[in-house]
Amino acid sequence: MNVTTRATVTRFSPRTVIALVVACAAGAPAAGSVVDAARAYHDTHRQVVVRVVEEGAIVAGVTWRDEAGVRRDGRVRAPLDRVSGTEARIWLDRRGRPAPRPLGPVEAVFAFLLAGFLAGAATWRMSGLRHHRRPVGKG
């Protein structure tokens, strides 16, 4: 018995290939911008370990000592980045006030995918319009 196997080849339309190239080209700078913003954030903010004194579903009360050793307190968004049962890490701005956490790898990937998807979808759609134009002046 002689068995012949054929490989299936998937062919992408030029429109799809162009859209994928544009998507990658648009996504990379967007992800790079998020990474640059995260680096700049680390230059102007610092992370400290705080004591959690009150914790709610949305906000937590915390205390910490500043660089001069003075006791400070504040409210931060939950959930907390726990170190132990009563300690957590938070970010402080240059003035020593609680600040949101910096952007991380998840946000960079999301920016890449979102920018790439939007640019690729727009390119794919615009390249399809060229083929579906109605003649001008014909009813």
From TrEMBL:
The chain crosses the membrane at residues 103-124. This is Uncharacterized protein. Residues 1-30 form the signal peptide. It comes from the Bacteria. Keywords: Membrane, Signal, Transmembrane, Transmembrane helix.
